[in-house]
Amino acid sequence: MKKASIGELLLDLESILDEMVDVHGLQTGDIMALVYSHLVVHRPDAFEEYEDGSKPIHYYGPKKD
């Protein structure tokens, strides 16, 4: 089986994202939360680890002063 290129995967993702927005009415925060939750539960190995052993902090919300 041929491995899909990143470009092909992005084309697939585009139609999925369009359906999530146009058909299901999801917004950016909804989509990001679903993807992030999936990665946390099913693919914790996908998170970068810095040289000091820490990992990035992801934040989506209002700008903090």
Describe the structure.
This protein is mainly alpha-helical and 65 residues long. The protein has one domain (1-65). Helices cover 49% and strands 0% of the residues. It has helices at residues 6-22, 28-42. It starts with 5 loop residues before the first helix and ends in a 23-residue tail after the last helix.
Draw up the topology in text.
Elements: H1 6-22, H2 28-42
Share in helix: 40-55%
Shape: flat
User: Average pLDDT across residues?
Assistant: 94
Could you spell the SSE succession in H and E letters?
HH
Q: What is the β-strand count?
A: 0
- How many DSSP H or I helices? 2
- Major sheet attributes: none
Derived structural class: mainly alpha
Assess the beta-strand content as a share of residues: under 5%
Summarize the structure.
The chain has 65 residues and is mainly α. The chain has two helices and no strands.
Features:
65 residues; mainly alpha; 2 helices; 0% strand; flat
